[in-house]
Backbone:
């Protein structure tokens, strides 16, 4: 059985796929990777979801988890100034992962459809910028954001809320 943390990471990877030119400025959502340490130019455009070390606090018979997540967006910039393109990527990442229109509820298999609450209590944008500066003659540019994801589990059972 997957942990709640794992289910949240999978939701973030799935969510990245919405970043495409029909509603966003870039196409970095075409590929989503998980915790890649290196991404080669031929693997772009892409989003890389990197979960970080979380903290835990015991409260009211449950565990409150706060998990930082770094999200990189990378793309070839072509004739566009790399700094300008990086700013487009940054905007897309913020819009995608913090949009109020992202319904994170989980549908139940009932008729009529009802919903369970999202796995994550909150996703808060904490930082962002040009996290992947280009080197001379490099064709890839990017940006990064930081999210603070808060979720709850039962004490001793990371798979149950």
Residues:
């Amino acid at each position: 059985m997957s942990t709640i943390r794992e289910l949240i990471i999978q939701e973030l990877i799935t969510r990245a796929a919405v970043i495409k030119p029909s509603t966003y400025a870039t196409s970095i959502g075409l590929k989503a990777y998980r915790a890649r340490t290196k991404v080669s130019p031929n693997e772009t455009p892409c989003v890389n979801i990197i979960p970080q070390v979380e903290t835990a606090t015991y409260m009211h018979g449950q565990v409150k988890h706060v998990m930082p997540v770094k999200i990189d967006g990378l793309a070839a910039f072509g004739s566009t100034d790399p700094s300008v393109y990086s700013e487009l990527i940054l905007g897309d990442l913020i819009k995608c992962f913090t949009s109020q229109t992202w319904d994170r509820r989980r549908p139940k298999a009932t008729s009529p459809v009802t919903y369970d609450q999202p796995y994550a209590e909150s996703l808060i944008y904490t930082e962002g910028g040009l996290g992947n500066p280009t080197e001379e003659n490099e064709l890839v540019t990017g940006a990064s954001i930081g999210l603070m994801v808060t979720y709850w589990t039962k004490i001793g059972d990371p798979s149950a809320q």
